[in-house]
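A further point concerns the way the authors explain their paired sequence and structure data. For illustration, here is how one protein appears when written out as sequence plus structure tokens:
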Amino acid sequence: MYLTQALHRAMQQKPDHIAVRFGDRQQTFRQFADRVARLAGALQGLGMQHGDRVAMLTLNSDRYLEYQMGVPWGGGVLNPCNTRWSSSEILYSLNDSGSTILIVDETFRALAETIRGDAAALREVIYCGDDDVPAGMHGYEALLAKAQPVGDAVRRDEDLAGIFYTGGTTGFPKGVMLSHGNLLSSGLALRAEGMATPGGTYLHAAPMFHLADMGLAMPHWIEGNTHSVIAAFSPELVLDTLERDRVTHLLLVPTMIQMLVDHPAMRQPRDLSALHTIIYGASPISEAVLERAMTALPGVSFVQAYGMTELSPLATIVRPSYHTPEARELGKSRSAGRASYCTEVRIVDPEDREVPRGTVGEVIVRGPNVMQGYWNKPEQTAEALRNGWMHTGDGGYMDDDGFIFIVDRLKDMIISGGENVYSAEVENAIAMHSAVAACAVIGIPNAAWGEAVHAVVVRKPDASVTAEELIAHCKTLIAGYKCPRSVHFRDSLPLSGAGKILKTELRKPYWDSQIRKVS
């Protein structure tokens, strides 16, 4: 299996069907495939060899889809850059992956100009914005215009398709290596789950650098459906696009769903009759938001997907039938669902022995969707992949019907607005302030974001620093969404007998009244 396989099928069966819509631009599968083959030729002309990493740092666009198909068509490896990261984090991913080519748009041209000199392997920068091409960069459209289309490299199951960076528990992002077989097996499972229907349209409203968006788009490539793209999420733009493009399937994180159903534009007359399914994930949804969403969008099916980048990304799913009022009374909608097709899920103790139903342990997953490993991190790979199983670091239990309920995180991770925030990264940033003696970062309940990043800080003797100053300090080092939303100062931190900070004690005042110990 290989990523571009579905494009060949669509070219053969429906070449004149609309493949992509973005604003006023649209392409048929015939036109899209030609541009993909030309992009592959252009990249090869710039020196891309088989296995070379090509990075992209842009907002959503039709060109992002060309990148996702054009790089593997030419034999390269994807490295989608997180647009919410700081310049130092982006530079780390470029250097760690050894990316040789970078594609940027107008939003990130200045950042690219700033960091390109420090990106050791970077040889070429391509500008895909619609204004004048900056000096020292190649124009995207000019490259495609003069490039000759090349034949598909036709990669194999085990060939590396992309390196997808996630937050790192050690303060550095980890590059998740996903093969063509990983991504296609997850896409086929999603297609079997009904996450794409013939003749449908998928809306790319979530950030396209996230594997969640690329993963949920895969069944629509397999089906030969249309892809509608917006540059970034906004409730009004989503509603306008749903109506204009007759969108059938949409992926949103719960925060986006809340913003959508509560927006004034939702109360205007709309024809959303084409909308079939909303898939949500990254964090659970509150009962109140789900109820408002189902009331505002009657007839739309809701599906929860649980997984992670390391799983390409799907592990379990809560189907629409478990979102009905009757099923919600049984509590199944509060679960993370049951194992999807091609995937096994178990709950195990620290010795990897399966625990009885209803007993909390670690969620582990096995299947063709499990990553190849972490790029350049053999020790972390060996820790995560044991005996063929991906150890998620999530704590949960399985009920008698096979539903997984996530109750806590064994990993020290916070999910805020659908974004993963590793407390070690934030703690490292806080600790760099000269007034900080010790700190601990935890997630606390937040109605809008699920969890908010909260810092507990011990000042050095005779030192002075305010919460505002610490937050501003963090923003110079890490992405804004990772920075604390609140800071509490205290004289000391609770420690275990081994000298470890007892974060469970710090969390108690915030989470004791909550059913779940995570958002």
